[in-house]
Write a structure and sequence with these properties.
Number of helices: 11
CATH superfamily of the largest domain: Zn peptidases
Distance between the termini: 18 Å
CATH class of the largest domain: Alpha Beta
Radius of gyration: 26 Å
Strand content: 15-25%
CATH architecture of the largest domain: 3-Layer(aba) Sandwich
Helix content: 25-40%
Number of strands: 22
Largest sheet: 6 strands, mixed
Structural class: alpha/beta
Strand order of the largest sheet: 2-3-8-4-9-21
Shape: elongated
């Protein structure tokens, strides 16, 4: 490795090689049809991406090409590998890592798009296709960074590690991606320095995310003829009125937290319905069952498990006092004493996950902010109650997780997804600045 100083390291890393980046990204977007993650119908084959990355990086590896890169293709499920790429530094335990670049994508229906989602097209500064923003653009970007390190061979104190992961877009299947890597101890070495999770957007540090509690509230009443409403327990009214009471209690117990202002959260914690259903039947039938589904978005200063316990307590209390629940109209009721019938609610939860508040005192946060200000021209960290569940697991395991990204929030998971080449170029320069600062 060539000796390098802080002053010339930026010059060594230079600018993003646009031609090389676009060539690689073209290949990756060309695989995106087979990277859609929507089980059981669509199971991604992330090894299609791994193979392209190996084509670029293997000639610069210790095994295949006599270069400095150490490559580990870690696979826990057929055709669904992860790739760990290491550029060794000179000081034991000193490391900077770029993690979270995932090789699966959300689904895309070509009939809904203005262009082919499964091939890269270029319109001026726009790079268009499924995965350009989330997250194949970042996969190509970090690959180019590792390639440049291996080609120029600067002598660094810090070991630089890139981790390309499988299975970020769906939590129904576990033991495939970063969770399996962490469980096997393959990421333990990254605790010696900041871990930058490269899967957000808009060129600014994302310092806070929300926890998510998907819930389902089911109401059971008594089905009856609409002309004899006094003999029915309207499950639709019951469930809606109960939900209103649950929401009122939720907002009483989970008000805006003082730290939300520090982290710049756009919204406080919220609980809201998003879907509802009932068994059907004629327009002249009062429904005996109704289900409302939704989610809680909880800022990371509240505990998800405690919140779930509270929600269950709300429902239990309403059930015990169902006759006190507000009703609608002169014959609307949730108890039929003569028939010894009471309306009843049940609440259930899908797999929850917790939010993240990044450490604003860490070295990783400070170097990311300084790099962003240098390259982008300003730094304005932000927080959202969108969810990045995998990074909370890493934070709980002792990693200094910081997050950033160079796609566009407006096109995440959207039709006609695109990113800007100029933003990716700035992202590369931010990475170079981060590595350089950590050498001080």
């Amino acid at each position: 490795m060539a000796s390098s100083t802080t002053s010339d390291l930026k010059q060594i890393l230079g600018e993003l090689n646009k031609d090389s980046f676009i060539t690689l990204l073209t290949k990756l977007i060309g695989e995106s049809k087979y990277l859609q993650n929507n089980p059981p119908d669509l199971i991604p084959e992330e090894d299609r991406v791994v193979n392209h990355l190996l084509d670029v990086l293997s000639p610069l590896s210790t095994i295949s090409g006599g270069g400095p890169l150490i490559i580990n293709h870690a696979t826990y499920y057929p055709k669904r590998g992860n790739l760990i790429v290491t550029y060794p530094g000179t000081e034991d335990g000193k490391v900077v890592s770029f993690v979270g670049c995932h090789m699966d994508v959300v689904t895309a229906d070509p009939s809904d798009w203005e262009f082919d989602p499964f091939s890269l097209s270029i319109e001026g500064d726009k790079l268009r296709g499924r995965g350009t923003t989330d997250c194949l653009g970042h996969v190509a970007l970090v690959t180019e960074l590792m390639k440049k390190l291996a080609e120029t061979k600067p002598k660094l104190k810090s070991t630089v590690v890139a981790v390309f992961i499988a299975n970020e877009e769906n939590s129904a299947i576990t033991g495939v991606g970063v969770d399996a890597l962490a469980k096997d101890g393959l990421l333990d070495c990254l605790k010696g320095g900041p871990l930058f999770w490269i899967d957000t957007a808009d060129k600014q540090p994302c310092i806070g995310t929300g926890g998510v509690i998907p819930w389902k509230l089911q109401g059971t009443g008594k089905l009856f003829h609409s002309g004899l409403a006094n003999k029915a327990i309207n499950a639709m009214e019951l469930t809606m009125d109960a939900l209103k009471e649950i929401q009122l209690r939720f907002y009483r117990d989970y008000p805006a937290h003082p730290k939300e202002a520090v982290y710049g959260f756009a919204t406080p914690s919220t609980m809201k319905p998003t879907q509802w259903s009932y068994p059907g039947g004629g327009n002249n039938q009062i429904p005996g069952e109704c289900t409302i589904c939704g989610d809680v978005r909880l800022t990371p200063f509240y505990d998800v498990a405690d919140c779930m316990k509270k929600l269950q307590e709300y429902v239990d209390d309403i059930n015990s006092n169902i006759e006190k629940l507000e009703t609608r109209g002169p014959v609307s009721k949730y108890v039929l004493p003569d028939e010894k019938l009471r309306g009843r609610l049940t609440i259930s939860f899908d797999e929850p996950n917790s939010g993240v508040a990044c450490d604003l005192n860490s070295r990783g946060f400070h170097v990311l902010c300084k790099a962003t200000e240098e390259v982008v021209g300003h730094v304005k960290p932000y927080s959202i109650t969108g969810s990045l569940p995998l990074i909370r697991d890493l934070q709980d395991q002792g990693f200094d997780v910081q997050t950033c990204g160079y796609g566009l929030t407006a096109t995440y998971h959207a039709r006609n997804e695109y990113c800007f080449l100029s933003d990716m170029c700035e992202g590369y320069r931010v990475f170079a600045s981060v590595i350089t600062q950590l050498e001080d």
